[in-house]
């Protein structure tokens, strides 16, 4: 049976306009004028609220299996749904085993099956010595590959050297899938640590952590990946760009025509280093939150298309790993949880700078879908796409409280922030999965495009 959803503000082809969406069997059939629904049919009317595409978050650490006490698919996908996200792409690390072999991928699939409120896909991992596993992983349905150039923080996912990349990148180039890179090189990080040891900094201050992760680590890593992208013609995506000093390099790579994209994260766009309180280790992440001037340059880069998308890098952990009792930034786990409130956080910061919901949809819906090869299914409201919708009130204002977070451990630097933009309802393939702060009982999420996608371009 065909169903109808209409609003005075539906985001279609980069613009908000009155429209009526018809959908059937989970897919959009057509988009017509606001008053086009046949007489006598039931029409869901969102009135003046905005209808946005379901968000796609291409950078989520679910940590399941093996570290489900950190997060898990049930909690993570509930948080995603509450945040207007209808598809997540799970990172290969922090789970045990890491997704670096086909057998590990199958373990991951089993952990996710029948536990997800939203759709999901998986990135594979590149670690030293697993080059022979990359093509089988691609043939088994991963959407691309992730590697770390610096220590990942977990022993199951070792960093790769330049020699490892010379081995892996020709294979990844053959698959046509992207290589996602945590772009910090270890040598500048080690040099910074040596300097800090001699000065004995106060590790209860974010400034010490900031000094330990200097921009040079990102600059040198991005420079390396541009050279390797040029050599192997492998798609490269730089994750969580924090240092504005990398932006001229990224811009030049684009002008050269290299297949290189980049993202940043809500915490780099919302917070500023000078405002992080002492002992507030829930702000710790790597790369770190930098100063306000740097933050504005990241916004400028999004506006100019030098940065392609915004992804959360949702990376939760048990509160004790954050060293909240000591406030020690040196030993605390680095990672920020924001999956349920990323849309309001970005909208709050974006509207203050003159950006629009059309910009948000490009950065958080269409471009992440394209990165993961899901652009024919997710990321926009268009005929033939999944009927994924977010009913959004851009003018509502609320304070972030623990009950709004929904991930396993309600710890986040956004607690107490007053944000604009309320997610009212979320539809996944035409079915309402979140409404009035309540979740659907049925877990409808499924894995997307699971086999042989690597050969389809």
Integer average pLDDT: 96
Based on helices, strands and strand pairing, what is the structural class? alpha/beta
Question: What is the top-level CATH class of the largest domain?
Answer: Alpha Beta
In the CATH hierarchy, the architecture of the largest domain is Alpha-Beta Barrel
What do we call the CATH homologous superfamily of the largest domain? Metal-dependent hydrolases
* Range of strand content: 15-25%
Shape descriptor reads globular
- Biggest sheet details: 9 strands, mixed
Tell me the number of helical segments per DSSP (H or I, 4 or more residues long): 12
H/E element sequence: EEEEEEHEHEEHEHEHHHEHEHHEHHEEEE
Which blocks of ≥5 consecutive residues have pLDDT under 50?
Answer: 450-457
CATH topology of the largest domain: TIM Barrel
**Total beta strands:** 18
Amount of helix: 25-40%
Distance between the termini: 34 Å
Total number of domains: 2
Overall radius of gyration: 21 Å
């Amino acid at each position: 049976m065909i169903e109808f959803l209409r609003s005075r503000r539906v985001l279609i082809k980069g613009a908000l306009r009155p429209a009526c969406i018809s959908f059937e069997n989970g897919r959009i059939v057509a988009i017509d004028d606001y008053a086009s629904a046949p007489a006598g049919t039931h029409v869901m009317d969102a009135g003046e609220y905005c209808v946005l595409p379901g968000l796609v978050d291409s950078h989520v650490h679910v940590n399941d299996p093996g570290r489900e006490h950190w997060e898990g698919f049930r909690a993570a996908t509930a948080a995603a749904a509450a945040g207007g996200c209808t598809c997540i792409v799970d990172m290969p690390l922090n789970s045990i085993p890491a997704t670096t072999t086909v057998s590990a991928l199958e373990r991951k699939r089993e952990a996710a099956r029948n536990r997800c409120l939203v759709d999901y896909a998986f990135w594979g991992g590149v670690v030293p010595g697993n080059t022979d596993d990359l093509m089988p992983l691609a043939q088994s349905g991963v959407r691309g590959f992730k590697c770390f150039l610096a220590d990942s923080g977990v022993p199951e996912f070792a960093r790769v050297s330049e020699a490892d990349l010379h081995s892996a990148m020709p294979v990844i180039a053959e698959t046509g899938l992207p290589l996602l890179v945590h772009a910090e090189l270890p040598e500048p990080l080690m040099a910074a640590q040596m300097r800090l040891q001699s000065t004995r900094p106060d590790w209860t201050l974010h400034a010490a952590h900031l000094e330990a992760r200097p921009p040079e680590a990102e600059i040198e890593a991005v420079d390396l990946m541009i050279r390797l992208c040029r050599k192997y013609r492998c798609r490269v995506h730089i994750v969580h760009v924090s240092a504005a000093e990398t932006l001229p390099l990224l811009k030049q790579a684009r002008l050269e025509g290299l297949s290189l994209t980049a993202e940043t994260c809500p915490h780099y766009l919302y917070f500023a280093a000078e405002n992080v309180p002492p002992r507030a280790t829930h702000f710790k992440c790597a790369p770190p939150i930098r100063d306000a001037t740097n933050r504005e340059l990241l916004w400028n880069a999004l506006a100019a298309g030098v940065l392609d998308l915004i992804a959360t890098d949702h990376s939760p952990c048990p509160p004790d790993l954050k060293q909240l009792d000591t406030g020690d930034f040196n030993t605390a786990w680095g990672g920020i949880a924001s999956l349920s409130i990323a849309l309001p956080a970005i909208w709050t910061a974006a509207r203050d700078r003159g950006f629009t919901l059309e910009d948000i949809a490009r950065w958080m819906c269409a471009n992440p879908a394209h990165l993961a090869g899901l652009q024919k299914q997710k990321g926009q409201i268009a005929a033939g796409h999944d009927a994924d919708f977010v009913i959004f009130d851009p003018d509502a204002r609320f304070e972030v409280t623990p009950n709004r977070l929904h991930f396993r451990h309600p710890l986040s630097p956004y607690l107490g922030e007053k944000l604009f933009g309320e997610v009212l309802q979320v539809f996944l393939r035409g079915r309402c999965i979140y409404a009035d702060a309540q979740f659907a009982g049925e877990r409808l999420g499924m894995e997307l495009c699971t086999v042989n996608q690597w050969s389809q371009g």
